[in-house]
């Protein structure tokens, strides 16, 4: 089975960051709980998913966060392989525009503009990758997981069907959405 390593890394980092925040810890506080010394920059790059972390370091972070490593990995696998195996979420812009959650105002404005620009029915559904979802979440003042959960509650987001790419980097060069 092939998968997009960059997406996996970003989701793993997002889960670590989400768990740290859930525990009410700053990166500095988490760093003090680690058994070995690492820089705050290294910890940040793990959370951003821009740097790979060894299994031993991953377990050390989980222990410092009072989390079972297999449970955190299970959440990552669920997001990467079940919810959105290619790191994409289908977004129904019509549902987003109809919603009235205050925090989704930037997203609603973007969705309205897109629907006005492309009025045909096919334009109402877009496929967003994890990087785009991260950007939208940031604009809305939410973390990525919160944004996806909120979009799913309002009916604006649905998972992609399970389908794995035969290409080593996870992207089909013939796929115009990439």
TrEMBL record:
<feature type="domain" description="HTH cro/C1-type">
    <location>
        <begin position="16"/>
        <end position="72"/>
    </location>
</feature>
<dbReference type="GO" id="GO:0003677">
    <property type="term" value="F:DNA binding"/>
</dbReference>
<dbReference type="InterPro" id="IPR001387">
    <property type="entry name" value="Cro/C1-type_HTH"/>
</dbReference>
<protein>
    <submittedName>
        <fullName>Helix-turn-helix protein</fullName>
    </submittedName>
</protein>
<dbReference type="Pfam" id="PF13560">
    <property type="entry name" value="HTH_31"/>
</dbReference>
<dbReference type="InterPro" id="IPR010982">
    <property type="entry name" value="Lambda_DNA-bd_dom_sf"/>
</dbReference>
